[in-house]
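hi! just following up on the protien thing from before. the input was this:
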Amino acid sequence: MLDAIEQIEIRRWIYLKDTRSYSVFLRDDCTAAYAVQGLTDRLRAISGHSGIVLLAGVFPLAGQFVCDGLFANVMTLGPNYMEDFRLRYQALRESGDFYTVPDVGAASAANGGGGFAAEAAPTAAARKKRRK
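and the predicted 3d structure came back as:
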């Protein structure tokens, strides 16, 4: 757990939506999106709803991206912002920049085990697309 906490990325995130398995977080610069789990509870149970911008920490733990649920500076997004971020999320998925699991391989170890962005493992759809 201490190793995971050392890798925490505290930043402003866009908490876009929830699926049955995870919550979708976009980096505030919209360069990557992540499938994020709550550490002890579903993130919707902690925040009340998705569609918000918040300051939070996300870190790789036990093969998934985890948010500890400590949120600050929470702002609700309006419908126009939500649509814009939804389109950006779709583009990230299509380009292979949506990450469901951290990479625990050599790239991650060489970069201190960060597990984020370039070190994260792409989704199956992204791997398939890159092979074509």
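Residues 2-123 form one domain.
The first strand starts at residue 9 and ends at 18.
cheers
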